[in-house]
Amino acid sequence: MGPENPNRPNYPLRPAATPFASQQSSTPFSSSGPAVGSEAPVFRPGPPAASNFQAPPFAGGPLVGTEIPAFRPPPSIRPGEVVRPPPPPSYGPPTSGFQRFPNPPMSSAGQVPPPHISLTGQPVIAPPTRPPPGPASPFSHPQPPLVSMGSPPQSIKTGQPNPNIPPPADQRFSTPIPRPSSQPSSPPTGTSYPAGRGTYPGYANMQPNSVSQAPPMPPASFQMQQGGYGPPMQSSFPLQRGYAPQAPPTSLLAQQRGYAPVPPVSTSSGLYSGNQFQQHGIAPAHQGLAEDFSSLSLGSVPGSYDAGLDITALPRPLDGDVEPKSYADMYPMNCDSRFLRLTTSGIPNSQSLASRWHLSIGAVVCPLAETPPGEEVPIVNFATTGIIRCRRCRTYVNPYVAFTDNGRKWRCNICSLLNDVPSDYFAHVDASGRRVDLDQRPELIKGSVEFIAPAEYMVRPPMPPLYFFLIDVSISAVKSGMLEVMSQTIKSCLDSLPGSTRTQIGFITYDSTIHFYNMKSSLAQPQMMVVSDLDDIFVPLPDDLLVNLSESRSVVEAFLDSLPSMFQENMNVEAAFGPALRAAFLVMSQLGGKLLIFQNSLPSLGAGLLKLRGDDIRVYGTDKEHTLRLPEDPFYKQMAADFTKYQIAVNVYAFSDKYTDIATLGTLAKYTGGQVYYYPNFLASIHKEKLKHELTRDLTRETAWEAVMRIRCGKGVRFTSYHGNFMLRSTDLLALPAVDCDKAYAAQLSLEETLLTTQTVYFQVALLYTSSSGERRIRVHTAAAPVVTDLGEMYRLADTGAIISLFSRLAIEKTLSSKLEEARNSVQHRIVKALREYRNLYAVQHRLSGRMIYPESLKFLPLYGLALCKSLPLRGGYSDVQLDERSAAAYTMMALPVKSLLKLLYPNLVRVDECLVKNEEFDTKKRLPLTVESLDTRGLYIFDDGFRFVIWFGKALSPDITKNLVGEDFATDFSKVSLSQRDNPMSRKIMEILNQCRKSDPSYFQLCHLVRQGDQPREGFFLLTSLVEDQIGGANGYADWMVLLFRQVQQNA
Amino acid sequence: MNEVLAWLLFFFILIALLVMIVFQLMCLADLEFDYINPYDSASRINKVVLPEFITQGVLCFLFLVTGHWFMSLLCVPYLYYNVKLYNQRQHLVDVTEIFNLLNWEKKERLFKLGYIILLLFMCLFWMIYNALEDDGHSI
């Protein structure tokens, strides 16, 4: 696969291919025949019906002829094929057969279709082998997959069109499966098909449609296929996918756009053939053939059942987030995708092209993402030379700079300026233009490096890690047990706070007054000072409110020990939050740091007091709806701005059982690069573990202090807007008082010039920060992306995860200025526009009626879009989600890295009862579609969205299991039962499974909620509303959503 | 003669408005080119927002009192817009969102600028017209 990939990147190659494409374009399907030339005819004659099938390969062979010897082998196969064909009925089956054929050839030709393969998995193996067995096997292989997918089943079910087909189909079916693995040829198809395989189950459903379509298609498609298939298809495949190697280079070129090689195929139609076939039966899988796009048959096809689409065939991200691999392979020196993901790796070369891309061009950056052991970002110290940067654009030296003039100069990859190489950094350049000292220079071979910044990168000495706690001690905080859990947790973290001996710490508590604590190291007990003048806050002591942890350790511990008991009898219900915030600001403003706020009730005294503006149902649906989600009092925005200015990051922990106006409090976190943790109805007995885990993580994870981040990019493009939790300090500089691995930022870019002349656009993310150890560092991530001239290529290089991440941020921002309904519609419109544009790319060459087409890279986009519309911040209306929960979820999602976001939108649902009973290894890979149909009443399921677990007990689940897990009182109300380890293997096993799940996602603690089937409203609240594929309230189910999108795509198409 | 003096007064008030708006625009431009940080920029702008609104209101009122109802009418849309902003508490620049709103803030002030310049020319015209008329009478 590796070799192939390289091909892709080579856009230049395309031209060659294009010729084909052009031909193709002119001659859609029919043309294919001609292209094939004499050969094609041959085919047909040879094997009547069967021959057709076989023929295609041959035909292809001829066409490709000179080009690809490999193909020919297939001819030998023909005999065998013929046999299969028996069902000359031809069209339906034949077509399918053809398609497959093409694929096989491709595989053989194109060694490996890496990208596709990856999807399905099977294909990969096959490719290598193909060549040898190729001839004979290829046919069979290809055929089976295709046929099975589409027509065969259909025919069977419907029975109408092709009586003959059924048998063949079956054969093929069976055959294909085995083959793929064994034979190489299959792989190619496999790649594309992967989806198809998955779909098999769905065939039946699909069939009707497919069948109906098939009849008309046969003749035309046949020819086309043949023409295309044989060689062309193959070639095209390689190209698109990267198989190209085998296929003639030219084909590669063609593929990109349209698969040039095969006249018909080559043009956009490359897919076509595939598509057509696909139409027949396979809903989702099509891509395999054509590659260019995937499609779904929808019921609207004339003659087909109205039922329309096969639910089981819809694409689902059951493997989690799949990053586009092809891109990473193209630019091996790019930083890892965990740091930077582009919504599409193909940057459009003109504004007109960009305007046809409706999915936003942008990037999602997670500068401090956690790296697995062994892949740590290398640290580079340029002590002697100073950090090497471009004189003009200030780009940091990176693997893409070119050294010229015998190593004395280097050319900046972003602005093309020729810079001098400092003499200390000089190294000779060998004949190929590489520096001889390359292996000792990580900054020249790695996309991510960290530079140690000298003094000119500091405006003041590096600050120590500083944690300041602002704690509500009013009656609700004491009663809920929050105070106690929090004190214990902080105490247990004192040893692991980053920064060792430099760490500073301080506390303020407040109710209707504000309490300061003198923690001077010479004291045995902390001294408490109470300030009750809320209008004119002053700090009673100049020093010692903020102390060095290691020096005052005993005082701090004494304080934390006594804190819960100190306020045990406190009956105060007021919260002077605003004044307390000011006090904290006064104490911290010298150094900056992290401010953790523990807030239990609505601020009720002094500045910044908030009204119970509540969740007025009358406001929903009016133009004022969004004001509920906006901060009410400008005091908080102003405070947030001041906090950022003084390098203070705010994390808000909110615990109230009543309305606390998270929308307003959250702005503190939003503009300071912080985060909102919300524990509605906090009760120590239930939420203790959650608070403990999340507070611990907040306190101990590696944090970058007083940071600023800038994303540079090449000439002609510019980042225009940024989305996430931060404040802009200048047009392109993000101020981040504290950053950690759980924060990601999104940015949109636009083209400044009408035409980009460069081949590649480079991006460089630079994060300047102070590490906990007190070093000033610059973390630099560099990535390159190709400039493309064609919309299809942009779609091919699209990254659903990044797009959804950007969409969710845009949609959430939209809820702050308009109704929820409009925010949801905007998501839907963007998806529809994108799919419509995509459809227009192929509508001319293909018969697309009744099919919804989408690029393979975006096959999950509609589903994630649907999930996004059903996510907490956007869901329903007044009654569906509490306002506070909505706001808290919105703030959280604004900061979430791509992977966590995708998991939140499409959570994992796994069945565990069998695993418990048999005590097998738990396999997290067996995810189920998120629909009620996945839930078997005899089963036990775990639902995991990264923030909580819901354990669902089926009605008919063996009482043994329930008893083992929750004890004797299993018949009681589950809301009062918590899952804890019991002394039996089953309980141990499930705890082990849960811990395993938690370990894979440590950012948040997943609290377990036990739910019994039919136990309303609990079941509905915890689980049913989260099954995004089902119809919930007024929202669409997945199938309806697809039909809706399809209709909208067709309108004004 | 009084007329001329009145127009002279309007003229200076308009110049004052002009200066305040140009100042705000300069702050925004400086911010855009990174010569100034958002905190300073926002606080400078916010300092002159209310004076601007008040001056404009006074101007409108004076036009009315002195019987120049047409000029007063011309000022009303501007005044209405200002009052609306004030009532929505959106008259001040939001420092946290200033970059996202930069274009809008600039556009708004450019419109105001054009408006004021228009008024200024009309004011000049009337002033000169009155002055010439006075001359005519004196002769």
From TrEMBL, chain B:
The chain crosses the membrane at residues 53-81, 110-129. It is found in: Membrane. InterPro entries: Cornichon (IPR003377). Pfam families: Cornichon. GO terms for cellular component: membrane. Belongs to the cornichon family. Its main location: membrane. It is a multi-pass membrane protein. This is ER-derived vesicles protein ERV14. Keywords: Membrane, Transmembrane, Transmembrane helix. GO terms for biological process: vesicle-mediated transport.
